[in-house]
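Priority: medium. Attachment 1 of 2:
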């Protein structure tokens, strides 16, 4: 019994010794190595700014080629030359420059036909500025339909990628073409011309402010001019439909009644857009692209305006916070207000700011009810406002005419008719300006 017990103990000891030796000499698995092996490989890793050309070949259409021009803008160069939609191309570049796989299917595929990659559904050549080209092959959908098979030419591996990646690069000319009817840069515009209602209007930019240059120099309503520019910039062509539809649009434009013509000039030159109306629909032709296109009534109505629609009816241009000095002469009464820091002063005395603000508001809100050609006589009210660090001085003279008032800005011929209520509100606000209340007396020391 004792010998049997000793034998069993020896066997157990040998087993424990072997286990301890194996444990001490075995190298633990590297968790990062395992994670890397499980992670789906990246198919393409490129810098977007280095990509200079993209060729897209699809089974049922001609090769589409995109390339950067000298200005760094993407253009369609085949099958026909067109400007490209920069945002759509940018989205495609984002996909191609960092294309991840969902899964690695095979390390060395023997049969590409199984995955639809022998004659791929789509081939995309991505060329960098160093002339290095990667060819992406996209084949059949996976059985689940949520992914597609993909590979790189010259690489034996087969991957799956999410279907949305395929959709991002499966683009035709109509998808990638710049659909703007006028391809100008709004921030570089120097002139806008509008011919409508047998009248020509020209706008010129003075720094950040638009002015009416023709038919005569007039102050422009910046909001109205910018709204016109925005609608011209947003005007897009509808490329859907057949060739027969295009012929119908061309016929409708040719027989339509002229609505207006807009010309825009930026650093690249001048572009023209003509709008015509056929029944209740508007059609356009642009010097930037060929063909006639149906456009929104909103665009048609934007051009169907007169110079009066673009004139500003406000008497003053100063910003509320920019005002530094205001003078109001109302008959025998005169009010002089000057800003110092956050306070307003008159004759060296601090005024009640809460009573000054209504005067500023009433002056800034003076707006014409309409423009008139005559009616200005002897002024009964004179208002002068200094703003913009002393660089802008605006002076307005107001005369009484029947039951209303007529105003004019100094050195400008335009006359503005004002409602009597606006003038009387201003006179009342000026009369109610008062001194600032005296500071509260501090209690004497030792008193509570």
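Attachment 2 of 2:
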């Amino acid at each position: 019994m004792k010998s049997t017990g000793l034998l069993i103990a020896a066997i157990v000891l040998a087993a424990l010794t072997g286990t301890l030796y194996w444990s001490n000499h075995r190298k633990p698995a590297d968790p990062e190595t395992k994670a890397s092996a499980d992670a789906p490989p990246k198919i393409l890793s490129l810098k977007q700014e280095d990509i200079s050309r993209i060729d897209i070949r699809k089974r049922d259409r001609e090769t589409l080629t995109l390339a950067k021009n000298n200005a760094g803008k993407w253009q369609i160069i085949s099958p026909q030359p067109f400007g490209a939609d920069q945002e759509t191309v940018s989205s495609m570049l984002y996909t191609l420059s960092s294309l991840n796989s969902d899964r690695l299917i095979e390390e060395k595929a023997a049969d590409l036909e199984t995955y639809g990659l022998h004659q791929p559904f789509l081939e995309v050549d991505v060329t960098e500025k160093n002339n290095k080209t990667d060819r992406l092959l996209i084949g059949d959908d996976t059985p689940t339909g949520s992914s597609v098979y993909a590979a790189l030419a010259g690489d034996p591996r087969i991957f799956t990628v999410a279907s949305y990646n395929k959709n991002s690069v499966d683009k035709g000319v109509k998808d990638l073409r710049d659909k703007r009817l006028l391809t100008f840069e709004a921030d570089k515009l120097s002139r806008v011309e509008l011919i409508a209602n047998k009248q020509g209007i020209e706008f010129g930019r003075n720094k950040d402010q638009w002015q009416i240059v023709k038919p005569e120099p007039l102050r422009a309503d910046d909001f109205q001019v910018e709204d016109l520019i925005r609608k011209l910039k947003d005007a897009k062509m509808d490329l859907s439909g057949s060739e027969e539809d295009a012929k119908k649009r061309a016929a409708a434009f040719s027989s339509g009644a002229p609505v207006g013509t807009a010309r825009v000039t930026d650093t690249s030159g001048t572009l023209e857009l003509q709008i015509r109306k056929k029944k209740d629909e508007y059609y356009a032709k642009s010097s930037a692209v060929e063909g006639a296109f149906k456009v929104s009534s909103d665009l048609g109505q934007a051009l169907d305006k007169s110079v009066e629609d673009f004139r500003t009816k406000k008497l003053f241009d100063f910003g509320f916070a920019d005002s530094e000095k205001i003078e109001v002469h109302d008959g025998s009464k005169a009010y002089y207000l000057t800003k110092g820091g956050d306070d307003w002063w008159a004759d060296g005395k601090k005024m009640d700011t809460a009573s000054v603000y209504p005067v500023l508001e009433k002056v800034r809100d003076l707006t014409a009810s309409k423009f008139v050609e005559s009616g200005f006589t002897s002024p009964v009210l004179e208002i002068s406002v200094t703003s913009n660090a002393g660089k802008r001085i605006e002076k307005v003279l107001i005369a009484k005419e029947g039951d209303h008032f007529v105003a004019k800005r100094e050195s400008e011929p335009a006359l503005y008719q004002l409602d009597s209520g606006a003038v009387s509100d201003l006179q009342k606000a000026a009369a109610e300006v008062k001194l600032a209340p005296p500071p509260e007396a501090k209690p004497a020391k030792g008193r509570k």
